[in-house]
Amino acid sequence: MNFLTQDHLGYYRGGMPVIQYYNEKIKDRREKYPFTINEKYVPMVEEMNQNGFCIMKDFFEKETLLRLLAETEELFRSKSDKTRQVQNGNHTIVTEPFLNTRTAHEIAFDQRLIDIATIFFNCVPGIGTFNLRLSEPTQNPLQGTNMFHRDFNSPVKLMKFFFYLTDVGPENGPFTYVQGSNREVPPNWSRYHRWPDEKIEEIYGADRVKNLTANFGDVIMATTNGFHKGLKIEQGRRIMFTINYLIHPEMEGARVESARPRFGIWTDDFNKLPESKKPVADFLIKKER
């Protein structure tokens, strides 16, 4: 198959307007915010650029993750109005995780994540949206994020960190990625928004579909412009925290006019950030308690 690569305009949803918007925004950030490259993480970013993902084993302190897990479990257990069901009941999410937990923003602003994202974008990035989600087995048909898709929150370049707050094996709904699909997509990639498994395997081959199992404390990072999904859960439960990093406010449907901040952070939490980290909150709405 003659794939479209990142050198082809047709690779990008939204075409030239989104590319021009991206180039303007990254130029602005590079001029506005000085940055350095932490060479320690370059190999990990190179692996992500090649495969579309990288699993970092035992990367994050379990004590901090346990605090977030406890806060999250309490919200789910109490059926708090700070949670709601999404995708026809397939998942339960914590709404506004930075506002409704004490620990989510501490993790998201960890200097190591910022350093990695800075390498990826070659500038100081910002946090867009984030998700704190419980998923359990259901009899519902495959839909939404359980089907292969590409993300267009930033059609040019986007990366996401995945924190499993429970161990995730093949039966627990691991994040699934089509290896290398961040670098090449079929010419008819826009035929479906959600792609059936058989079509993806026909195009790329089943051997390139990788179920990214990992344990509590591991961190997965991925550039989600490639094809990916969450494998349907067969047993147990999965709690996962994800964080999007990008260089402009997130879009809907790759429409430049839709780019705007969407999630909030408490103003006092923002004010406590070191000056070097405050640019990472550029795309968050500052809210008074």
How is this fold's topology laid out?
Blueprint lengths: L3 E2 L9 H18 L9 H10 L1 E4 L5 H16 L5 E4 L4 E4 L2 H4 L3 H5 L2 H11 L4 E10 L23 E6 L10 E4 L5 E2 L11 H8 L4 E4 L6 E4 L5 E3 L7 E9 L17 E3 H6 L12 E3 L2
Parallel strand pairs: 13-14
Antiparallel strand pairs: 1-8, 2-10, 3-4, 4-5, 5-12, 6-10, 6-12, 7-9, 7-11
Helix pairs in contact: 2-6
Could you explain the architecture of this structure?
The protein has 289 residues and is an alpha+beta fold. It has one domain (4-287): q2cbj1_9rhob like domain (Jelly Rolls, Sandwich), CATH 2.60.120.620. It has helices spanning 15-32, 42-51, 62-77, 97-100, 104-108, 111-121, 197-204, 267-272, and strands at 4-5, 53-56, 83-86, 91-94, 126-135, 159-164, 175-178, 184-185, 209-212, 219-222, 228-230, 238-246, 264-266, 285-287. The strands form four sheets. A seven-stranded antiparallel β-sheet has the order 2-10-6-12-5-4-3. The chain has a three-stranded antiparallel β-sheet with strand order 9-7-11. Helix 8 (267-272) links the parallel strand 13 (264-266) and strand 14. The radius of gyration is 18 Å and the shape is globular. The termini are far apart.
